[in-house]
Specification:
This protein is an alpha/beta fold. It has helices at residues 15-23, 67-80, 97-109, 126-130, 151-161, and strands at residues 4-8, 41-47, 50-56, 84-90, 113-118, 140-142. Bound molecules: guanosine-5'-diphosphate (GDP) and magnesium ion. Magnesium ion is lined by residues 15-16, 37, 56, 58.
Amino acid sequence: PMPVLAVVGRPNVGKSTLVNRIIGRREAVVEDRPGVTRDRVSYDATWNGRRFKVVDTGGWEIDALGLDGLVAQQAEQGIEAADAVLFVVDAVVGATDTDDALVKLIRRSGKPVVLCANKVDGPSAEADAAALWNLGLGEPYPVSALHGRGSGDMLDAVLEAL
Ligand code: GDP
Ligand code: MG
C-alpha cells in the first residue's frame, strides 16, 4: 500500500492549493472563503519517483459545533489514517489559537510532521516563516503554494517523513 500524507491546517491557509501543487493538477477545490471544501479527498502523487497518497482534510462545514471543533475533528480523522502529517500554517497571518490546538493534536498522534509555512510568496515573508519555529515542530519550510516557491524542499522533507 502507498504511504499516506494528511494535509492538515485551519481553513483558508492554502491546503487545497498546496495539494494541487503536490499532485500537479487542479483537482482539489480552492475557495476564497474559509470552510467550504466539501470532504476529505485522497489523491495520488509522485515526487522523486516515489508514489504516495495525499489527503486534503478540509472537509468541514461551519455549523453548530463551531469552527474550531470541526477543524479538530476533521484533522484528527485525517491524522489517524496517515503515515505522516503536512501541517500548513499561513505564515503571513502567523500562528493562531486554532493552530496551537492542531499542534497539540498532531503531537498526541506521534506521527511524523512537516511544517509548511505557506503564503511565503517572496523574500519579504521569509521572516514570517522563521517565526513559526516557535510552534516547536522543527524547521518551518517556507512555501508559496500559489506560485510553487519552496515546494521542492518541502516535498524532500515529506519523503523523509513518510
Ligand atoms: P484551504 O481552505 O486551506 O484549502 O485553502 P485554499 O487552498 O482554498 O486557499 C485559500 C485562499 O488562499 C485562496 O484564495 C488561495 O488562492 C489563497 N492561497 C493559497 N496558497 C497561497 C499562497 O501561497 N500565497 C497566497 N498569496 N495565497 C494563497
Ligand atoms: Mg480546502
